[in-house]
Amino acid sequence: MTGAHVVAALVALGGAGVIFELVRRRQIRDKYAVLWFVLAIGMTVVAFFPGLLAGVASFLSFTEPASALFFVALLILLMIVGHLSWEVSRLENETRVLSEELALLRLETESRPGFGEAIEDDDH
Amino acid sequence: MSSQADRPQRVLVVTPAFNEQAMVGEVVREIRTSLPTAAVVVVDDGSTDSTARRAREAGALVLSLPFNLGVGGAMRVGYRFALRRGYDAVVQVDADGQHDPREIPRLLAGLEGSDIVIGARFAGKGTHDVPGLRRWMMKRLARLVSRVAGVALTDVTSGFRAAGPQAIRVFSRTYPAEYLGDTVESLVIASKHGLIISQVPVAMRERLGGEPSQTSIRASIYALRAVAVILLSRIQTWPSPRQNPDPETAKSYGGQT
Hints:
Distance between the termini of chain B: 21 Å
Strand order of the largest sheet of chain B: 3-2-1-4-6-5-7
Distance between the termini of chain A: 76 Å
Order of helices and strands of chain A: HHHHH
Oligomer: heterodimer
Number of helices of chain B: 9
Strand content of chain A: under 5%
């Protein structure tokens, strides 16, 4: 086990720690927490058992274990970013609908008889 | 066109306005003079100036968005409002004074045979000066959209439009909020929904106030987006409101007066 493996393991465990803290403070949805935990565990395992990575690499017919690692990592990250783009699009649309509803409700409330009579003087 | 031909057509003029305090009052007054029976709603698109107050003082209803959504977002609120209050036609008139309200009756007359009527420049009426490159791009776009819509249109970027009941129903759900998607993209969506688009030639005036919303860089981005939109429209699917009215939608957007 080389220094690089130790660094990788520490980074993975540190990341898992951060996610754990976010879960504890209820700052992250559990579905993302699970995703990152699984990745952190995977990273730690690979750091401690480099032979595993070599096995996977030769199975995928990569000559370099490092290339296999980069390939898989990139693939996972791309999938996550793609998923987030989808989520953001959905959220933007939901925000838009909400703001439209707010505008419609505001007009309805303001056009009720008696609305704002008490604060009329402050307005002008 | 509708079954309630015996009652007068209820018209809603929707004016999207973003920081247009200089002109919005005058525009609203002009609309109310030309069309005394129509209701005017100004959609205040997150303005930071006194647009909403000026519009209200001029006698318009005001829908205030909490933040800027762009013309498309503002228009969808307008269409939703029209659907809920049971209006038969929506006319979009910009808040900068470019659109002459006296042309509105001609747009409305066009709704007899179609769902959307565009008040079009470059159709023989009025002299509208547009710099060469932009004019060329607008023509190319018009030809592209004409092919999608199956009807010859000369001006697909005009924001001066009238929409009938079918179009109101479609637009209250689908009007695009994307940057400048309110023009080309909305027409593409409309024709995907089987709506009939037509145009009447109008003269446009010089902007009476406010800042033009298009610079040449923005215009180029817009052209690229428009082309992407037209290409994407070939693979996008929409539920058809004509063939299968969604009961859930009918309920939540249902008529309340």
